[in-house]
Amino acid sequence: MKVLPRSAPLSLEEARCPVCSEILLEPVTMPCGHSVCLHCFQRTVKLTSLCCPLCRLRVSSWARKQSREKSLVNAELWELIRLSHPERCRRRMEQRDGQTVKKTSK
Ligand SMILES: [Zn+2]
Ligand SMILES: [Zn+2]
């Protein structure tokens, strides 16, 4: 995947999560360059013994390190997505926060 330009607004295509097909919320960018939402990462990647759902790259040691350092979320990309699609992010956040899902500790 190409490296994203910092300033340009992202198209919806670029900001879309390949797992849930929604806007990327708190994107986790894996070493292979694929990005999924944090909750998709936790649901999908962790269930598939920590392989990228798109290219099957094993990301287990990377994920352990990132969660230990609390840097799973690609803050730069997240910022860019929020700037590019504030309305969609807000709606998804509201949807998500509306659900009373118990948060699992990282
Ligand atoms: Zn997702
Ligand atoms: Zn991948």
Automatic annotation (TrEMBL):
Any idea of its EC number?
A: 2.3.2.27
What InterPro entries does its record include?
Answer: RNF168/RNF169_E3_ubiq-ligase, Znf_RING, Znf_RING/FYVE/PHD
Q: Which reaction does it catalyse?
A: S-ubiquitinyl-[E2 ubiquitin-conjugating enzyme]-L-cysteine + [acceptor protein]-L-lysine = [E2 ubiquitin-conjugating enzyme]-L-cysteine + N(6)-ubiquitinyl-[acceptor protein]-L-lysine
GO terms for molecular function, please? Answer: nucleosome binding; ubiquitin protein ligase activity; zinc ion binding
PROSITE patterns referenced in this protein's UniProt entry, alphabetically: ZF_RING_2
Report the locations given in the UniProt record.
Nucleus
Where in this chain does the record put each RING-type domain?
17-56
An individual GO BP term = double-strand break repair
Q: Which UniProt keywords apply?
A: DNA damage, Metal-binding, Nucleus, Transferase, Ubl conjugation pathway, Zinc, Zinc-finger
Entry's Gene Ontology cellular component terms: nucleus; site of double-strand break
Recorded protein name is RING-type E3 ubiquitin transferase
Taxonomic source organism:
Sinocyclocheilus rhinocerous
